[in-house]
Amino acid sequence: MEKPSEVLVEFDKVIAQFEGLPEPDKFVEPYRYARDIAYGNIGSRNPYDVLLANKGTCSGKHALLKLIYESLGYEVKSFFAKHNFGNFPISSCPEELAEYQGQDIPDYHDFLKIKIGDEWVTLDAVFDSDIVRLGFPKLEWDGTSDMQLPVATSEVFEAKGDMEEHKKMLIAALPEEQQVLRKRFLSDMTEWLDKNR
After folding, report:
1. What are the start-end ranges of the H helices in 72-151?
2. What is the spatial distance between Cα 189 and Cα 151, in angstroms, rounded to a whole number?
């Protein structure tokens, strides 16, 4: 993926802050950086768009984190976890999102596995720490062991080829009414988050 010129310097600055760290800090600090990018829909999964906006959903944030780790010399794979936005992990559902509770709104949550030694270790940086106060799960990773995913999954599988293209295909295969509901949920959730941050 070619870096747009306007983010080249910014991306290199991000990498530079992690290059000299010892392990496991070299795993944990990039994770915390990506995690604390604001969670919300910007209409793009491109990692450079996420970097510029300082905001993104699971796919964009994890695409950026994957690029960071790869730039630091690590092997990383993208995975999908099928889940339901109708059972989204907010401890106290806000009134603005109540209509979606219990509905069937399939989605494919993106997360990563990074190779540490001979093991592939699961990590997930989707929800920033600022929204824990709004009822979202607190995400921490120790840089050595598997994390539990923050969504209830019905299926987990590796992304094939380009993660963004694979996700587009998965979503396009959903019934049209579920695609519409999924898009509306993401829009309403982002609007609610933006108002309450």
Report:
1. none
2. 16
Of the candidates 196, 22, 6, 192, which has an alpha carbon nearest to the alpha carbon of residue 99? Answer: 192
Alpha-carbon distance 192 to 98, whole Å? 12
What are the structural domain ranges in the chain? 5-196
Q: CA 132, CA 43: separation in Å to the nearest integer?
A: 23
Interior angle at CA 76, CA 72 and CA 78, nearest 5:
140
Q: Pick from 173, 176, 151: which is nearest to 79 by CA?
A: 151
Direct distance between the N- and C-terminal alpha carbons of the chain, in angstroms, rounded to an integer: 32
Partner residues linked to 39 by β-bridges? 56
Q: pLDDT tens string for the chain (197 positions)?
A: 555 677 888 999 999 999 999 999 999 999 999 999 999 999 999 999 999 999 999 999 999 999 999 999 999 999 999 999 999 999 988 999 999 999 999 999 999 999 999 999 999 999 999 999 999 999 999 999 999 999 999 999 999 999 999 999 999 999 999 999 999 999 999 999 999 99
Helix (H, G, I), strand (E, B) or coil at 70: helix
Q: Which CATH class is domain 5-196?
A: alpha beta
